[in-house]
Microsomal glutathione S-transferase 1
Amino acid sequence: RRGKMAKSTQLIDNEVFRAYATYTAIVLLKMMLMSLITAYFRITRKAFANPEDTASFGKGESAKKFLRTDPDVERVRRGHLNDLENIVPFAGIGLLYALSGPELSTALLHFRIFAGARILHTFAYLIPLPQPGRGLSWAVGYAVTLSMAYRVLTAAWLL
Amino acid sequence: RRGKMAKSTQLIDNEVFRAYATYTAIVLLKMMLMSLITAYFRITRKAFANPEDTASFGKGESAKKFLRTDPDVERVRRGHLNDLENIVPFAGIGLLYALSGPELSTALLHFRIFAGARILHTFAYLIPLPQPGRGLSWAVGYAVTLSMAYRVLTAAWLL
Amino acid sequence: RRGKMAKSTQLIDNEVFRAYATYTAIVLLKMMLMSLITAYFRITRKAFANPEDTASFGKGESAKKFLRTDPDVERVRRGHLNDLENIVPFAGIGLLYALSGPELSTALLHFRIFAGARILHTFAYLIPLPQPGRGLSWAVGYAVTLSMAYRVLTAAWLL
């Protein structure tokens, strides 16, 4: 079956596409990790959003006090939303970029810088590092996506 | 034209890709449904986020009181954000997975379990069901995406 | 290399796919613009979410007062989240739609209306325009995505 698939699409046999697949899987997994970190802080800080999540702490007032926001939880959630806002455009524009026939070395440069910047961004957000650490790592990832979008629009332009 | 398209890509003629397209469309439509449910609760609970949305209730103080948060609205919004956090990685990693040449039966197993888990998750969130109903349905969808990511990284690895 | 890529996938040489790539890049760039607008309002309104972002305003109480929500910032953030909720399904379902072999003219009609509706939606949210301006522009984009999803499910259905 692998042979048939490869014959009909061959996308996965293309080196640029393989690099895209590798880095996109990595940054999407990194984004998914934010869910686990949120859960970790919700449990250790005892700060939940839904009444049914506090049922194990007893009923009534004793459970109600755990329905609250916590600064650490909110920080992870902001990092998660920032990932959505930045990794989604990377994944979408990156796919189009990978299919536009760039040089492998150029594509790898884009993907590596983006993945590195987003991993740095997560550390900068969660530690947290003093600014402009988080701002710069955000800007680098943003610039990589803009660069890929420029290539996509140049190669594909059909309005 | 359909013939020309099929000849140049043939993706849509690949059974694994057709299964991916079907399930991805279904879970994205399910995610879009959350917008309508949010609108339904905003209107029935009279709880809006923007001043211009309350203009039909009159001007000044009489309208201002509808600029508020409502527990039911916030619950749907949390479910919607959870969909974004989980269905986006599924759609992205699932596409790469579908292009990595898996067995149709294995791919269908992944897609069916994910779609079922996310539909259950929505019911668990909106009814709401007691925990660990929501937690388990979330974890099952998460595990399916991890399993597909493992296959993608094994098949495509190019760092 | 471009020639080799084109031979192995040819996706970028397909006119419908080129149109999809163009419009998806445009709406994703528009979504990314919301980050810059949020930053602009955070800086001009002096309203930040993270303590480390206010360090340049001094230490202690003098900086703490800038850790606050601002109506203009929150409005842009709601617009940004609405983009995520609507542009993500468009990008995902639109890719499947583009690969399902639609007529170029029909595809262009879908993409153009969606992009126009989302650009209008942003203006309606940020100015803000009185309702139902924002509601209608949202509904038009939503309907376009539903129409593409119908086509995808008809062409690909494999459950």
Notes: Chain B has a mean pLDDT of 92. Residues 110 and 144 of chain B are 6 Å apart (CA to CA). The longest helix of chain B spans residues 15-44.
